[in-house]
């Protein structure tokens, strides 16, 4: 799934890292670059580079905080929101196509096995 997702992002000229940052920035709705770095588990310098790249493409913008003029927030532009929507639809379609190869009973069995792996034992 990860390979298919990375391949589908090529259509928009994004790396998985950039796409994750864009999605996270959208979820944060105006968080600081340092907050974004923490959520992505990357160095603040790396987050700055990612935001720079997204900003150059018009997908995000830096906005000064009204409460603290020293603080700069990352906000996703309308173009960025549209791109995230396209990416999400593409990812959903790719996942659906992959799982459609399995019968209904095989899909249920896979769900059961995955739940067994991720749910804590009691």
From TrEMBL:
<dbReference type="InterPro" id="IPR023187">
    <property type="entry name" value="Tscrpt_reg_MarR-type_CS"/>
</dbReference>
<dbReference type="InterPro" id="IPR039422">
    <property type="entry name" value="MarR/SlyA-like"/>
</dbReference>
<dbReference type="InterPro" id="IPR036390">
    <property type="entry name" value="WH_DNA-bd_sf"/>
</dbReference>
<keyword id="KW-0805">Transcription regulation</keyword>
<dbReference type="Pfam" id="PF01047">
    <property type="entry name" value="MarR"/>
</dbReference>
<dbReference type="InterPro" id="IPR036388">
    <property type="entry name" value="WH-like_DNA-bd_sf"/>
</dbReference>
<dbReference type="InterPro" id="IPR000835">
    <property type="entry name" value="HTH_MarR-typ"/>
</dbReference>
<dbReference type="GO" id="GO:0003700">
    <property type="term" value="F:DNA-binding transcription factor activity"/>
</dbReference>
<protein>
    <submittedName>
        <fullName>Winged helix DNA-binding protein</fullName>
    </submittedName>
</protein>
<feature type="domain" description="HTH marR-type">
    <location>
        <begin position="1"/>
        <end position="119"/>
    </location>
</feature>
<dbReference type="GO" id="GO:0006950">
    <property type="term" value="P:response to stress"/>
</dbReference>
<dbReference type="GO" id="GO:0003677">
    <property type="term" value="F:DNA binding"/>
</dbReference>
<keyword id="KW-0804">Transcription</keyword>
<keyword id="KW-0238">DNA-binding</keyword>
